[in-house]
Each structure stands twice: as C-alpha cells, then as structure tokens.
Amino acid sequence: MPAPEGFHYQKRLNGTVYISHHGREAATLRGPRAAKFLDEVEAGDPQEVMARWTGNYKRGNERSGRNHPRNR
Predict the structure, then answer these.
(1) 1 pLDDT above the threshold of 60
(2) 4-9, long-range: CB < 8 A, 24+ apart
(3) Tens digits of residue pLDDT in 21-39
(4) CA triplet 42, 25, 61: central angle to 5 degrees?
(5) Which of 5, 9, 26, 64 is in Cβ range 3.0-4.6 Å of 54 for a Cys bridge?
(6) What SS3 class is residue 6?
(7) DSSP conformation letters of 14-68
(8) Would you state the pLDDT for residue 58?
C-alpha cells in the first residue's frame, strides 16, 4: 500500500489548525482537537496522521470490493 502524500498543515496564532490535501482544504481543527492533532503529528509520521484525521486515505481494495458478489 503506498504511503499517503500531499498533505500539509498550518497552525494559526489562535490555535486553529488547517489541513490541506494537494492545495485544497481538507479539515479545520480547533481547541482540544487541534492540540491532540499536533501532539500526534510530532510523535508519528505526519502524512499518515493527517490522512487519518481527514479520512482521506484509501486501502487499495475499492475496485475489487465493488465487484464482490455481496455488493452487486
């Protein structure tokens, strides 16, 4: 599975965190959620953390799942 890429985040002075994916805004975090996100980004792989927080990640099985008999 390829690693997520193209995510960037920007922290503002008021504590708000903006996460973008390939230049488009993907999420805005404020208050305790923003603080928790920043802690996770510093502790782990930033690209994977941002992908998880925005819900913008794929598992690689979307095409095969669409063709499964249960999903027809």
Answers:
(1) no
(2) 4/47, 4/48, 4/50, 4/51, 4/56, 4/57, 5/47, 7/46, 7/47, 7/50, 7/51, 7/54, 7/56, 8/50, 9/37, 9/41, 9/46, 9/50
(3) 889 998 999 999 999 999 9
(4) 80
(5) 26
(6) coil
(7) TS-EEEEETTEEEEEE-HHHHHHHHHHHHHS-HHHHHHHHHT----S-HHHHHTS
(8) 59
